[in-house]
Specification:
globular; seven-stranded antiparallel β-sheet; 19 helices; 870 residues; Immunoglobulin-like; six-stranded mixed β-sheet; alpha/beta; Jelly Rolls
């Protein structure tokens, strides 16, 4: 890195045209170009959004995994999220990353069609119908990547994003807030035209970004794949230039999503500064030609270059060397912070008869498909290799060592990874040998170019680099000793972005080469899982071999799904189980104990980038398991794990704790809450509908011939449920505590600034912890109801501010929530093309969820005013 900041004008004037063009795209998957003669450094980017993976999907360096976006927003704690930003910055420095690709601030608006998965992992291992094989794709409550985003509410989303950006950038690391804008579904995400009214666009989808730009401007914004009102975001000048740069006066750099640039001249003119990844597809020689015929002017080129240079100047403060080696920083401080983050986001949804907290001397059974497997994050670009994780069962055993376990049922969307089924020839359990070639297996004289020992049988080669590999064409052989503990029939599976065949003792068991079916794996560029079944004897060594060809060897292609690098291969295996016997065994155990912790939900197979969930229903036999276990024992605590809402027989159980995907320390945090070491304080950042059909986007949930109409307009989430008087399972902002609280004595005051647009609305009140024994935290939520005679249709109320408060047992505190008056009262007028602070009587409603707002106080706006900008 240079000793000091670059002089922008001097540097722009010194750059050759070819060098300017180089700066406007990546050179590889994660790095920008450097210009050594002018001391212009190369910088590194890294995913995001719940950690810092570094430069490798393949054989990556372990990292700190934070809770998913919905789990972070469930804390409703801006200081805690700012602290999370500081942790992200430290992780970036450990991975040599100057730019962090996060946070994600899209809005969860979608619901799936009510469609049930076929029972997975039943006696015959019947797998769900592939989404791509259905008559039309379905939507999930929040889309495939809903878990990455914060909330259905733009104020909560924007406030959380601003807090995290503040922490990240305070330490000199750039935040690239994403996905700008309306990347709210995975179905046809690169081509879908999201048709959104200007009012909804401003009030719902752009507002999280506007709040972040207002409070803590991100140094970069990542453009989304989709179109908005007819124009791809990477070339949407009306939004990128006219709105963000001119109206909001934002001074940052626009970075494309990976392979999300679709033009040369249009994207440069619109304001897209950096095309990622490299080598460039749309710039390079194409941009040089566009300049030569004045499709792009030199002034427009220089504007893009200045943005890039300014970004490089800003990240110099982090003092991260170019091409820095990646390392692990697994410290106790990191673990403690991750544990606190996860614990503060857990939401206690139900606690009849005070089943919780548990006592350590109780006889406890831990049951369910998520009990012994750590479900720490969702899939796709959010996935990373954690420093360490523990299961819920192991974490409970740390507090109650005599806890018993039963599986109950299995839940997979793809077969579980090989794990301890495999070992290397030298006996290293959990590992296998991955040998890479440039020639196919038919070349018997081929020579390996690299030999690795890996412990993750989901081998992702998006960013694999070797100077001997051309055009991402390579071949690899997976070898290992396969040993099982129980004699039984087993299912082995292959999913691939490329081609692959699996052999056991040189006999072909699975063929995913000769006939392939397009699926949703590998960000939508891979196949469905092909499987084979065979009987394996316990403790006998079988020779497993997989012959893999990288993405260019694939015989399938899917319109609108970019192929990332060399693709990848996933190898899975599971014992064929008697589901009825598994459930019956769990029921018998439940009858023998004082209480049951029942661990159900989803995992990264069901919530991931590249596809959308097919249903809100819990997959497999989980609903049946919940009902039968609750019949066998009256004291059942259902611990659910998912990034977005699910359907379950909630009425069957007395206690429900929702835990999202909690990151490295998620399971430990769950045990803390179960046994009362942590008092739950999380609040839902989204509404939890009874069923998919209740969702406001149910009729507009997919791309229909390339378009998706946002027909619910501004009535997203609780705005819709309240306006339509539709009941939900649990409302937005809801969450219980082991303590009890009361709020009282509301006061509303407005500052007396002469300019009404600069005034601040202060809402003050008292909050009391009415518990005698336990301290705890409560979230004061401030909603505003618009004038009854408003000139436009308005929601019943909208969240405008909040504050999380900790109180010791019996403590009383005064709380004041301050909000810009214009943000609390304005709507976007499509007639005036401006925000309108409408004259009239407003009501402040304060409570602890959107359905519980007992305090009310009115205020008056005497005259209307319009405004634009921030």
């Amino acid at each position: 890195m240079p000793d000091g900041p670059l002089d922008l004008e001097e540097t722009v004037g010194s750059l050759r045209q070819s060098e300017k063009i180089q700066l406007l795209s990546g050179v590889d998957f994660w790095h920008t170009a450097s210009i050594p003669r002018l001391l212009i450094p190369q910088v590194r980017m890294s995913d995001g959004p719940n950690g810092v993976r570094g430069t490798k999907f393949f054989d990556s360096v372990p990292a700190a995994c934070l809770p998913c976006g919905t789990g972070l927003a469930a804390t409703w704690d801006t200081q805690l999220i700012e602290d999370a930003g500081h942790l992200i910055a430290k992780e970036c420095k450990a991975k040599g990353a100057h730019i962090w690709l996060g946070p994600t601030a899209n809005i969860q608006r979608y619901a799936p069609v009510h469609f049930s998965y076929a029972p997975v992992a039943a006696l015959q291992f019947v797998y769900p119908v592939e989404i791509s094989d259905l008559p039309f794709p379905f939507r999930s409550p929040l889309g495939g990547r809903g878990f990455e985003s914060f909330s259905e509410d733009p104020v909560l989303s924007g406030t959380m994003a601003a807090a995290m950006i503040k922490g990240v950038q305070a330490d000199g690391v750039a935040s690239a807030m994403k996905h700008f804008v309306a990347n709210d579904m995975e179905h046809q995400r690169t081509s879908v035209n999201c048709i959104i009214s200007q009012r909804a666009l401003r009030e719902i989808y752009l507002l999280p970004f506007q709040i972040a730009v207002r409070d803590n401007p991100p140094w970069a914004l990542m453009t989304s794949y989709n179109k908005v009102n007819g124009t791809h975001m990477c070339e949407n000048k009306e939004i990128l230039q006219d709105l963000v740069r001119d109206e909001w006066e934002w001074e940052g750099a626009f970075v494309s999503d990976w392979y999300g640039t679709y033009s040369t001249s249009e994207a440069v003119i619109a304001g897209l500064d950096i095309e990622m990844p490299g080598p460039s597809t749309w710039r390079g020689e194409l941009l040089s030609k566009a300049l030569s015929v004045s499709k792009v002017t030199h002034r427009q080129l220089d504007a893009r270059v200045r943005s890039v240079l300014q970004l490089l100047n800003r990240v110099q403060a982090a003092k991260i060397p170019e091409r820095a080696p990646e390392h692990i920083r697994d410290t106790q401080e990191t673990r403690d912070r991750l544990r606190k983050l996860a614990g503060n986001g857990l939401v206690l949804l139900k606690n009849e008869r005070n089943v919780l907290p548990l006592k350590r001397d109780q006889k406890i059974a831990v049951i369910g498909p998520n009990a012994k497997v750590a479900r720490y994050c969702g899939g796709g670009s959010a996935y990373l290799k954690p420093y360490s994780v523990t299961s819920i069962y192991d974490s409970i055993c740390d507090m109650a060592p005599d806890a018993k376990f039963a599986q109950g049922c299995e839940v997979y969307n793809a077969l579980p990874l090989m794990g301890d089924f495999l070992r290397t020839e030298n006996g290293r359990t959990g590992y296998f040998t991955f040998t890479i070639f440039t020639d196919p297996p038919k070349n018997l004289k081929r020579t390996a170019i690299e030999v690795l020992e890996l412990n993750d049988s989901n081998v992702v080669l998006y960013d694999y680099q070797n100077s001997l590999v051309a055009d991402n064409l390579l071949y690899a052989t997976i070898t290992g000793d396969l040993v099982v503990e129980k004699s039984a029939d087993y299912i082995l599976g292959l999913t691939v972005a490329g081609t692959a065949k699996l052999y056991i003792d040189n006999c072909l068991v699975v063929d995913n080469e000769e006939t392939q079916t397009i699926g949703e794996s590998f960000f939508g560029s891979g196949t469905v899982e092909e499987t084979g079944r065979l009987y394996l004897e316990a403790n006998k060594t079988y020779k497993l071999r997989v012959e893999f060809g990288s993405a260019p060897t694939s015989k399938t292609s899917k319109a609108g799904s970019p192929v990332f690098g060399a693709g990848g291969v996933r190898v899975g295996c599971a014992r064929v189980c008697d589901e009825e016997a598994e459930i019956q065994g769990a029921v018998e155990l439940a009858r023998e104990v004082d209480c049951v912790v029942l661990c159900c939900g989803l995992n990264s197979d069901f919530e991931a980038e590249g596809f959308d969930r097919a249903t809100m229903a819990l997959p497999g036999a989980q609903a049946k398991l919940i009902e039968l276990i609750s019949e066998a024992n009256p004291n059942v605590v259902l611990v659910t794990q998912s990034g977005t809402p699910v359907e379950a027989p909630w009425e069957s159980v007395p206690a429900v704790l929702h835990s999202w995907y909690g990151g490295n320390e998620g399971s430990v945090a769950i045990a803390d809450v179960l046994f009362g070491a942590t008092n739950p304080s999380g609040k839902l950042p989204l509404s939890w509908p009874h069923r998919a059909e209740d969702n406001p986007a149910f009729l507009n949930h997919r791309s229909d011939e390339g378009r998706c109409i946002y027909g619910e307009d501004i009535f997203v989430g609780y705005r819709f449920y309240e306006k339509s008087l539709r009941q939900v399972q649990w409302p937005f902002g809801y969450g219980l505590s082991y303590a009890t609280f009361a709020i009282q004595n509301i006061q509303v005051n407005c500052s007396d600034d002469k300019d009404i647009l600069n005034r601040v609305l202060d809402v003050s009140l008292e909050i009391v912890n009415t518990s005698c024994e336990m301290g705890g935290s409560e979230v004061v939520q401030v909603y505003v109801q618009g004038p009854s005679l408003s000139r436009v249709s308005r929601p019943v109320k909208e969240l405008k501010g909040f504050q999380k408060v900790f109180l010791a047992a019996g403590e009383k505190r005064s709380v004041c929530v301050s909000m810009p008056l214009k943000y609390t009262t304005s709507f976007w007028s499509e007639l005036e093309n401006a925000w309108v602070m409408e004259a009239g009587a407003y009501t402040v409603l304060v409570g602890t969820s959107s359905h519980d707002t007992p305090l009310a106080r009115g205020f008056l706006i005497n005259s209307s005013a319009t405004w634009t900008g921030i």
